[in-house]
């Protein structure tokens, strides 16, 4: 997991993987796009948070090799992780990646 002052690079990395066919969006949780792109949505949220230096993090969730999870199971697993870290009500995006020979998930908050 890594944190930063902006979600821009983590979103770009994952969105580029989607365009290349190596990833897909599993869910946008607690995200109200209001007809904005995902980049614009999170940029707007970042400007609202003036007290935090690092307002974003990007983590990888790696199920056991060969473990097959449904979309709902992934959403539930990530939801549990986010709640456990105190971020359950915050906006985040879950991406499924198949780019390294096994399925894993990236979460951008």
Radius of gyration over all CA atoms, rounded: 14 Å
Mean pLDDT: 80
Q: How many strands?
A: 5
Cross-sheet strand order for the largest sheet: 1-3-5-4-2
- Strand portion, in percent? 15-25%
In whole angstroms, how far apart are the ends?
11 Å
Helix content: 25-40%
Structural class, judged by helices and strands?
A: alpha+beta
Number of helices: 3
Task: Give the topology string: H per helix, E per strand.
Answer: EHEHEHEE
pLDDT < 50 stretches? 1-5
Give a quick account of the main beta sheet: strands, pairing sense, barrel closure. Answer: 5 strands, antiparallel
Tell me the overall shape. Answer: globular
Describe, in short, the structure shown.
By secondary structure, this protein is an alpha+beta fold. The chain is 34% helix and 25% strand.
Describe this structure in words.
With about 110 residues, the protein is an alpha+beta fold. The protein has three helices and five strands; from the N terminus they run E-H-E-H-E-H-E-E. A five-stranded antiparallel beta sheet has the order 1-3-5-4-2, sandwiched between helices. Strand 4 (about 90-95) and strand 5 form a beta hairpin.
